[in-house]
Amino acid sequence: MANTKPVVLVTGGAGFIGSHACKALAAANYLAVSYDNLSTGHIEAVKWGPLHRGDVLDTDRLTAVLRESQAQAVMHFAASAYVGESVSDPQKYYRNNVVGMSSLLDAMSATRLKTLVFSSSCATYGEPVHSPIDEDTPQRPINPYGRTKLICEEMVRDTAYAHGLCYAILRYFNAAGADPEGELIEHHKPETHLIPSVLMAALGLRDEIQVFGDTFPTPDGTCIRDYIHVTDLAHGHVLALTHLLRTGDSLTLNLGTGQGSSVRDVIRACEACVDRPIPQRMVAARAGDPPLLVADANRAQTALGFIPTHSDLPMIVKDAWAALQKLPRG
Description:
Blueprint: E1 7-11, H1 16-27, E2 31-36, E3 51-53, H2 59-69, E4 73-76, H3 83-88, H4 90-110, E5 115-121, H5 144-163, E6 166-172, E7 174-176, H6 194-203, E8 209-212, E9 224-225, E10 227-229, H7 230-247, E11 251-255, E12 261-262, H8 263-274, E13 280-283, E14 292-293, H9 298-304, H10 313-324
Parallel strand pairs: 1-2, 1-4, 2-3, 4-5, 5-6, 6-11, 7-10, 8-13, 9-14
Antiparallel strand pairs: 9-12
């Protein structure tokens, strides 16, 4: 039986956010076709549509998959995404993120595909002069990861001007949590995200949690971030895609909650969840870490009706804890 659902190619569809987006797409009656080289993604996370294995840098392969799948839109998640690594290995980030975006835009042009949802980041804002951060805040990234995302945003806008691309640029804040239904699990190698790292220390899978700096200009001296549940984040991507297909109007939006939690807030929430103290050690602050990143998400609510429903910190921690306990030890 021929497929009658709108087809969306999801680059990085085997990754943490990409796989949750595929699940959300399926729930909204889209067919999600994943394109992933599995360098950091997991094949077992591809459950809601076919997987085409390939690198986003391989323009010919990407073009062929777009043509074969008859995709009507692209969600672009495939990228390198660790701030610290971007400082130590910037060329990897310019290659994978910037050259990868150029490759995707070439493939979309070759197949006359005009609809793109792009996974950008609050890292493009750098150290903002005010908080919460709205979309008009000047973008002054302070690390290579943020700079590559900003360059990609400009590439998307320039391509839209030249060739009529219809786009949603989604600058999201700290993705966290796990699928509440237990079908998808966050696991990175190595794990660098704060909440699963703290919970791994609670399970004894690491000796302690390192707190990177306690002299930031914040109430308790540790970094403050806006944590958004990955399920809410995935839903926001589907809302943006549906908006583009319905109206053809491009947009640039923050996806966050407007609530900030410090590193110490996160550790306390994890300790409350597991009902025991978690070993921790203060270490030097990392290069490229802004002290405060909290979203003004009003524009997403107005444009898309986007309202996070899973993103209070205890719920995020509860879902992450349930998922972590399902991982095989070792």
